[in-house]
Amino acid sequence: MTEKQTSKKISLFSATALSATAMVGSGWLFSAQLNAKFAGNYSFLAWFLAALLVMPVGLCLAQVVSVFPVRGATSRSSALSHNSIFGMPFAFANWFGIMVCVATEAQATTEYLSAALKNTDLISDDGLTLYGKIFALGILCVYLVVNFYGIKLLAKVNNIVTVLKIFTPLLTIILFLIARFDKTNFQLVSSHLYHTGSALEAIVGAGLIYSFNGFQLAVAFASEIEKPRRNVPLSIILSIVVVMFVYMALQFAFMGAVPHEMLCGGWSSLNLHSPLLNVAMLLGLHFLVALLMADSVISPSGTGYAYLGGSARMFYAMAAEGQMPEWSIGKLNPIYNICRRSLLINWIMIAVVLWNAKSWSSLMVVVTGYNLLGYMAAPISMGAIKPHTRIYGAVVFVMLGLIMTTLPRHDLFMMILSLLVLMIIYGGVQLTKKTDFLVLVSLITPFMLYLTMIYLYANLIYIGVVSLLFYLFVTNKRFVDFCKKYKTEGLFLDDE
Fold first, then answer.
1. What is the average pLDDT score of the chain?
2. Which structural domain, as residue segments, surrounds residue 33?
3. Distance CA 198, CA 39 (A)
């Protein structure tokens, strides 16, 4: 590798900052209240369990990257370990979840500004107005410019934004603890209604997975990070641990700062429109109010432009594996090391989603569901590439299968239906390329059948057993060899 190429790589600090920035997006402004409503005093356990869920997934991806340090490895892993047909539903779910997150961040910024400025021109009871949507599209344009000039500009902007995004929650924690801490808030009569199951429900329902989802950004940028075999897993671990402690401390400070008289009906009755901002106003912390208003722009934007870069790289990787049209990608820009065609296509699709979205909260749980489906590829790919890791991978996969039971049934059904429609369309395209029908069915069916089985009967023991059997089947050497036998040829692009 030449010195010029080396200079384009980003450091461990920048890789850690990239993931940490993505994890401190719009979620932190709402998660403390939502988590308290779902889990009460078990909120801290919920944060720990959420971190405990995403970290093993990240480390599974890091194992894949240690063998294949390629661009967009997050969506590409199952195609690398098996083939592009088997990996299609995982890649779609992962990419789609990341892509929609960009739209939610731009929308969140618009909503926060409208609420803070009490401006009804940008948002109404039915969602963003015409002016609000145009304003949100303007925010998307800023995300595009930051990414258009490559990873070095993204890293420079992101390092500065990361400091601001971490500083604001830390200052909020300190000021809340100083201004007011009512320990009786943790001794509410209704607290006995919460239990460990409440913490599990909060992982999805309160948006904790949504808040932690940025951990995989380091994997998406794997080919552009210095010493990826060492720095990718380190950046995943460091970013998750740092952000987990920040979120837990914020939870503690928020729950102690809420005026006790507002909790007559328990935590489930708390319904502040802008939780942190509202509490800061009640406490008379005017400087913090102004800072939170500014951070309502900085935090979502920092996550938005990072996700846009990640989704563009995932899309490039999917096209490289034959999972997206070949015309949708072009050569990497020799100066900025990015496929601008892929970036623009993603931006256009995100703009369409944003234009038709109603609100931030309406998309959060669905996005989380797609993220969980995408995560499932990580232990499968790791177990296939490194067979000695199958026991660890099985534990991670079963854990993901069990957490899927906390998704609303209707949302899970719609996700399965959307994947089914996609796979039918994708299968039709593959048949036009003279792919053998029986081979196609044998590659597409296993995962779709698994999702159908866990949807039809929501029993934890049953889902645990089904998840384990499915994992052992798709990581079995015979099945992996079968997939590799029919691996699409001629669709792999140079990542350097």
1. 82
2. 3-364
3. 5
Strand 123-124 with 127-128, pairing: antiparallel
3-state secondary structure of 50: helix
Cβ-based neighbours of 480, under 8 Å, separated by 6 or more: 81, 82, 384, 474
Which residue carries 């067979």 as its tokens? 387
Instruction: Give the residue carrying structure tokens 């997050």.
Output: 74
Structure-token pair, residue 295: 């951070």
**Residues β-bridged to residue 225:** 10
Q: Compute the distance between CA of residue 378 and CA of residue 74 in angstroms, rounded to an integer.
A: 8
- Alpha carbons within 13 A on the beta-carbon side of 167: 11
Token pair 């932690």 is found at 212
Tokens read off for 338 = 């990015």
Is 474 part of any domain? no
Distance CA 18, CA 40 (A): 31
Q: Which residues of the chain have pLDDT under 70?
A: 1-8, 71-75, 112, 115-119, 125, 149-162, 191, 302, 317-339, 359-363, 487-496
Residue 253 vs residues 267, 268, 377: alpha-carbon distances, Å: 15, 18, 36
CATH of the domain at 234: 1.20.1740.10
**Distance, CA of 221 to CA of 463 (rounded, Å):** 33
Spell 266-286 as b/e; 16+ CB within 10 A means b.
bbeebeeebbbbbbbeebebe
CA 97 to CA 189: how far, in whole Å? 39
Q: Is 127 helix (H, G, I), strand (E, B) or coil?
A: strand
Q: How far apart are CA 91 and CA 77, in angstroms?
A: 8
What's the total number of domains in the chain? 1
Residue 270: what residue type?
A: L
pLDDT digits over 69-117, tens only? 776 666 678 888 998 888 888 888 877 877 888 888 888 778 767 766 6
Task: Determine the pLDDT at residue 466.
Answer: 96
- In a domain, residue 451? The reply is no
Nearest alpha-carbon partner for 328 in 343, 306, 308, 338: 343
Yes or no: say if 122 and 129 are a contact pair by the CB < 8 Å rule: yes
Q: In this structure, are residues 51 and 38 in contact, taking their beta carbons and an 8 Å threshold?
A: no
Residue found by looking up tokens 């940028």 in the block? 221
446 inside domain: no
